[in-house]
């Protein structure tokens, strides 16, 4: 029972490192405790304790899912706990677990990389990198994004634990083993030094003034139970309190809800504000598709003359939020699929908007949790990135705080300013170093204006992405296994040629 509670408690420590709590050093304590619980244990015990650790971590970190679907929340916990349990089963066991100092961080990282991409495109929420945006490791994301940041976090925690264990147990490790772990930790300051010197993008010398509009209002609302005009009225109301001067005015996601934008009265109202401010309005729209069971989620650039200069349609849709996977099957087993009555159409264009002041990258809402969306924008010439989002459906601050953390991560990875704007919070400007400015509180109606740098150039992560790092994890994980197989082969070969003693 004590080991069960210890496994859960280790996971809770990792959860406490995440936003909105943000006590980032606790991730190292939780990971070290989990690694200690695995030491010298058979595979079945490692799997069970790891599953409990994951539940202790992800249950608080993804608690917002509970208000939408209790079965879905439980399924997600079970699935991701299974990913990690299988990963530790594949680790070298006694007496070969001396290699766990390397194999365990690699296995953990590969399980997380799988979670970031599967199922339904992945669920990269409550992840270690989101908790480390406030810590000293954030610069590593310019090199290897969330994959490298995950690996280094686990690597530090588990190896520091092994170095400090003799002080707790009053045992005397072999000089070779102690030297191994101390030597491994030398990699960390080297990685931090590299992270601070690799390309971070550079200032082009151009500046753009951006105004963000947060209409405010209550949270915990659902689109099917809300009059669609409310969000537009609130956005118009806060925009009318702004006197102008910005080069761009950015509205959140899903503000304009119409059958067809080009023939709607709403477009004229948006254009009137663009004309008054003499600046384009980048507005989030929800528009019916030709198929009545589908809709389109887009961000458009409305010019002062009422024309639409550019349009980007969201590519990465929210499963069970913007579309219902396996709708027929789920309906047959009693799942309330009517909560998502229509499926969003996935866009196909690059993640950029063309504006009068240049190319702007766009990651709509959920897309900001995926590094590939911002990487596509930057590689298509974006000097600034916007993240229009709609967090009005969620109560509390767990998901909204994690989204701010994701925007900070994307800003550092890309070397760009990220501008996040939501109807009910949080809205903010995030610098290329990950600093948050002008944050607007939840439910607050307010606007903020800031002049930001237009930047260019690519970081290492924007050049190479995630795949090389995942392959590196797989290679490093396989080294102990490959070495053990070679050793066994040599031992068997030596035994086969050893002459038997005479009778």
Describe this structure in words.
With 503 residues, the protein is an alpha/beta fold. It has 2 domains: 223 residues, no CATH class; 260 residues, Nitrilase/N-carbamoyl-D-aminoacid amidohydrolase. The protein contains 16 helices and 14 strands. Strands 1, 2, 3, 4, 5, 6, 7 and 14 form an 8-stranded mixed β-sheet that branches. It has a 6-stranded mixed β-sheet with strand order 8-9-10-11-12-13, covered by helices on one side. Strand 4 and strand 5 form a beta hairpin. Helix 7 runs antiparallel to helix 8. The longest helix has 31 residues. The N and C termini lie far apart (55 Å). 46% of the residues are buried.
List keywords for this structure.
2 domains, alpha/beta, six-stranded mixed sheet, Nitrilase/N-carbamoyl-D-aminoacid amidohydrolase
CATH superfamily of the largest domain: Carbon-nitrogen hydrolase
Biggest sheet architecture? 8 strands, mixed
Poorly predicted residue ranges: none
CATH fold category name of the largest domain:
Nitrilase/N-carbamoyl-D-aminoacid amidohydrolase
Percent of residues in helical segments? 40-55%
Strand content: 15-25%
Whole-number mean pLDDT: 88
Task: Using the CA coordinates, give the radius of gyration.
Answer: 25 Å
Q: Count of helices?
A: 16
Q: List the quaternary state of the chains.
A: single chain
- Ends: how far apart? 55 Å
Determine the structural class based on helices, strands and strand pairing.
alpha/beta
Number of strands: 14
Spell the H/E element sequence: HHHHHHHHHEHEEHEEEHEEEHEHEEEEHH
CATH structural architecture of the largest domain:
4-Layer Sandwich
